[in-house]
Amino acid sequence: MALDDIYKEVILDHYKSPRNKRELPGAELQCHANNPLCGDEITVFAHLDGDTVEAVTFQGAGCSISQSSASMMTEAVTGVPVSDALKLAADFRGMMAGDVDPSEDEFGDLVALKGVVQYPIRIKCAVLAWDVLQDALDGSGNASGTQPHTVG
Amino acid sequence: MTDHRDTLDVEAIRRDFPILSRTVGEHPLVYLDSAATSQKPDQVIDAEADFYRHHNANAHRGIHMLGEEATEAYEGARATVARFLGAPSPDTIVFTRGVTESLNLVAQGWGRKFLGEGDEILLTEMEHHSNIVPWQMTADVTGATLRYIPLTDDGLLDLSGLGSLLTERTKVVGVTGMSNALGTITPLRQLADAAHAMDAMIVVDGAQLAPHLPIDVQALDVDLLGFTGHKMLGPTASGGLYGKAEILDAMDPMFGGGEMIHEVFPDHSTYKPAPFKFEGGTMPLAQQVGLAAAIDYLEALGMDNVRAHEEEITRYALDRLLDAGATIFGPKDVSIRGGAVSFWFKDVHPHDLATILNEQGVAIRAGHHCAQLVMRRFGVPATARASFYVYNTPGEVDALIDALDRAQAIFS
Questions:
Q1: Which residues of B touch A64 (CB under 8 A)?
Q2: CB-based contacts of B360, cutoff 8 Å, min separation 6
Q3: What pLDDT, in 10s, does the model give residues A85-128?
Q4: What's the pTM?
Q5: Residue B195 and residue A82: Cα distance in Å, rounded?
Q6: Which one of A38, A67, A124 makes the best mutation probe of the B interface by having the most chain B beta carbons within 10 Å?
Q7: Of B370, B393, B402, B406, which one is the catalytic site residue?
Q8: What pLDDT, on the 0 to 100 scale, is given for residue B62?
Q9: Known catalytic residue: B370?
Q10: Rounded to an integer, what distance in angstroms lies between the CA atom of residue B19 and that of residue B233?
Q11: Within chain B, which residues score under 70 in pLDDT?
C-alpha cells in the first residue's frame, strides 16, 4: 500500500510529538514562509556560535509532512557547521527531486520522507522548512519566492 | 443527446462522461471536486471537436464559407448563454475566459474609469480571491476604499450592519452568488435592491451559481454577472460576463487589439459597440461553442432538476459527514446552500486527508480554496472540500465516508 510509504511511523511520531517546536529567545536568525497552496506555515529560529548552528527551533502549522519535516530538520542540523547544514538542505532537496538517494546512515530519520517523492504535489510541504532554514542561514531575510507584493 | 427531462437519471448521465469510468489504482474514481472544475460529457467534447473538424475559421473575419460557419457557431453560443441567464439580448453577453477575466474586466474597465478618492467598494468576506484582488488593484490606482460585509458563525452574510457599510459612498457591491468555500447561497435580489437604493452597482461572481441554480439576471436585477464555463460542464477558457447594456456601453475595454476596433488612426482608435469592444484578439471559439453544448445539456436535464439533485445529495453528505464526526464550515440547511461542502475530519490536516482519500479513489480539494478571508474568519489554515454535481451518487458519498475511516486509522 503506497500510503505506508508516505505515512511512516517516524513521520507520524514527529508530527504528533514535534521536536524543538518553540520560539528561540535571542535567536539572531529568524525566517518565515508559507505554502500558499495549502496554508502550511513555518518560522525557523536559529542561534549560531561562530560557524556552528548552536540551536534551531521552529513554529508553525500545517500538514503532517511539512511539520514532521521541520521537526526532523531541527534535530539534523543542531550542532553542525553552517556549511554542513546548507549541504544537508541541498541534499534534502535533491532527494525530493529524485536526484539523490541517501542512505539511512547519512540522513537518519529524514530518509523516511523519501516516500513523499511519489506524491509530487506534497513535495512542497516537505521542503518548506528547509527553504526557510536556508534563507535564515543565508541571511536573505525571506524564504524563496515568498516575498509578498502588497496591493490594496 | 440523452434526454433527462423528467428526472435526473444519474446512471444515464454518468454514461455521458467518459472520464467517470477511470479507476485510481484498483478503486473506481469518485470525483468530488466539481467546484474546482466539472467533468465534461461526450456532447461537449464532441461539440468542441466538431468545430475543429468541420467549421474552424476565425470568427467575424473570413469572407468565406468556414468563416461564416465559425461566426454563426460562436454567435449562436452567445445567444444560448443569453437565454440560459435570462439576459434580454445576446449583446449583453461578453465572452471571456471565465469569471476571473470577467471580474478583472469590470474592475478595470468600469472601476478605473469611474472610481476615485472617497468612493467605496463593498465586498464580502466570503469572496473568492478573483472578486477581491482585481478590486484591490483598482483601489490602488483610483484611491477608492475596500469594505467588507462580515460573516456569521454559520457562514452566512451578516447583513445586520449593512446600513453602515452600504452608504452613499458605496459605488459598487461585489458579491458571490454561491460561496465556493462555504456553499452559501447569497440573497442577490435583496443585495441588488439595497445597492440600487444607494445608486451603487452590483456585480456578481456567478462561478458557482451558474452551474447549479436556475438564473434570471433580469429578475435578480443584478448589473453585472460573471460566469465560468468549465465549472458547468463546458471547456476551460469558456465563460463570460453579463452586463446591463448601459453599463457595458460606459465601460472601457481591457484588451486593445484586433477585431475590437471600429477605426484605427495613428493617435487614437474608435471601438466597436459592446460586446465586441471587449473581445480583442482571437477568442476561444471552439470553447465557447462547447459551452453552448454544455448549456444545452444542462437545459435538457432542467436546472430545477439539477438543483433538486444537488439538494438531495448535499443533504445526504452533510448527514453522513456529521455522523462521522466531521466539522462542517458553512450552513447546514440545504435550502440555502450549494453542493460544495467544506469540512475538517477529526484532527487530520486537509492535505493529509486528500492524499489518503486519493488512495481510495476519492478526489476532494484541500486548501484555502482561494478564499483566505473565509479561512481566517473560521480560524483554519485550510479545509477539505467535497463538492457534488449532476453525476454524483449517494454511493460516492458512502465511498467518501469509508475512506475517512482509513484516515482515522492512520492518524489515531
A1: 349, 352, 411
A2: B24, B27, B30, B399, B402, B403, B406
A3: 999 999 999 999 989 888 878 788 899 999 999 899 899 999 99
A4: 0.93
A5: 60
A6: A38
A7: B370
A8: 78
A9: yes
A10: 12
A11: 1-6
**Residue A147, C-beta contacts closer than 8 angstroms, at least 6 positions apart:** none
pLDDT value at residue A107: 86
Partner residue facing A3 (CB), from B137, B350, B359: B359
Confidence of residue A12 (pLDDT cuts 50, 70, 90): very high
Asked if the model's pLDDT at residue A35 lies above 90, the reply is: no
Residue B24 near residue B399, CB atoms below 8 Å: no
CB atoms within 10 A of CB B58: 16
Q: What is the pLDDT of residue A140?
A: 47
pLDDT reading at A36 higher than 90? no
Cell 472617497 sits on residue: B118
d(CA B151, CA B125): 6
How many Å apart are CA B182 and CA B371, to the nearest integer? 10
**For B340-390, how does the pLDDT look when each residue is reduced to its tens digit (9 = 90+)?**
999 999 989 999 999 999 999 999 999 999 999 999 999 998 999 999 999
For chain B, positions 371-390, list CB contacts with chain A under 8 A: 372, 375, 381-382
Q: A7, B356: Cβ pair inside 8 Å?
A: yes
Question: pLDDT above 90 covers what percent of chain A?
Answer: 67
Cβ neighbour number for residue B412 with a 10 Å cutoff: 8
Contacts of B133 in chain A (CB under 8 A): 151
**DSSP conformation letters of B109-169:** IIIHHH--TT-EEEEETT--GGGTHHHHHHHHHH--EEEEE-B-TTSSB-GGGHHHHSSTT
Amino acid at B52: Y
B72 touches chain A (CB under 8 A): no
CB of B132 within 8 A of CB of B373?
A: yes
Residue for cell digits 465556493? B180
How far is B131 from chain A, CA to nearest CA, in Å? 13
What's the rounded Cα separation, in Å, for the pair B201 and B171? 6
